[in-house]
Amino acid sequence: MWYIVQPGDSLYIISQKFGVTIAQIKSANQLTDNIIYVGQRLYIPLGVQAPIVYTVKPGDTLYLIARRFDTTVDSLMALNNLTGTLLRVGQQLTIPLYTEAVVNVNTANIRSGPGTNFSILTRMTNGAKLPVIGFSNNWYRVRLFNGKEGWISGNIVTRNVYSGRRPITGVLGFYTLEEGPSLPSSFTSFANNTGQLSSTGLFMFRISANNPTTIEKFGDFTDQDVRNLVAIAHRNNVKIMPVVHNLLYRPGGTTLAKNVVKTLVSDPRNRNAFALNLVNLIERYGFDGVNIDIEDVFIEDSDNLSLLYTDIAEVLRPRGYFFSASVPSRVSDEPFNPFSDPFNYSVIGRAVMNLW
């Protein structure tokens, strides 16, 4: 969850408040020292989440408590069954960790502000789940699939407020094309389960072996097929991105895959050209970002591989595009593992928004 630093706070006080370590807070927020400032927004890595109970202190108001814990007065009142805004010192309040607005009409307009006089940004379908980040006059400020914000009327949604008694997590689903009678396309599963997803990656694009600065289609599909998937995702508030990988070259196998990466990462001009081609891919189909799934790499290309992720981030981040990476997991320090050792998780983790 997110927390706003208050006067008198220190990393020690915050760590004790949430039951996490100072090191965990510093790592989650990439802090190099213990200095924090009032108003700073810190991510608290709760791990196994549990309800947070706050005891009201002199001077507290619902607004101040909501601001401190990055929630809304509306959510605080709903979760604690409050009928008014008056508080008493010593009163205990359960803090909302997550609030969502679920569309309960066939089609719902998402607007640029809290009222029907504001312009329509996009439309959502019945069942779309929208993370709530604000509330004003029966309008919810919500987070959209592309990371931007919008507003939706409280009259056309069902509000759900969660305390953390059950796990709260995002769900990523990977989408694949048909690979034979026993491996059908993901389309039916995807279309029927958008309400369970927060993001999806289309395993449908690959780094070209002929020119590793470019991206080729992986499988048999049309541009309209992709745009249909993007439309389904967006009207259900699901983030959607291409998975760009270096896998399954035939002929050539893993040796060719490693050489493709070597050519791509060894020259800064190649890395930059590839990053710009990712932008072209995103904008061609209306994706929200990209997932890079590089798996076969020569160990001597490790440093240049890290530079690739950094270079991609420098191109995507100013444009507001989401950037994530799928990397091989390291299961032990010994013996030497040529599959995972080329990946510097620390550097890659700083470059991307999510590491899978």
From TrEMBL:
A molecular-function term among this protein's GO annotations: lytic endotransglycosylase activity
Residue ranges occupied by any SH3b domain in the UniProt entry: 98-161
Record GO biological process: carbohydrate metabolic process
InterPro entries: GH (IPR017853), Glyco_hydro18_cat (IPR001223), Glyco_hydro_18_chit_AS (IPR001579), LysM (IPR018392), LysM_dom_sf (IPR036779), SH3-like_bac-type (IPR003646)
Pfam family membership, one: SH3_3
Keywords, in A-Z order: Glycosidase, Hydrolase
LysM domain ranges (all copies): 1-44, 52-95
UniProt domain GH18: residue ranges: 169-356
Family to which the UniProt record says this protein belongs: Belongs to the glycosyl hydrolase 18 family.
Protein name from the UniProt record: Spore peptidoglycan hydrolase
Source organism (scientific name): Acetivibrio straminisolvens JCM 21531
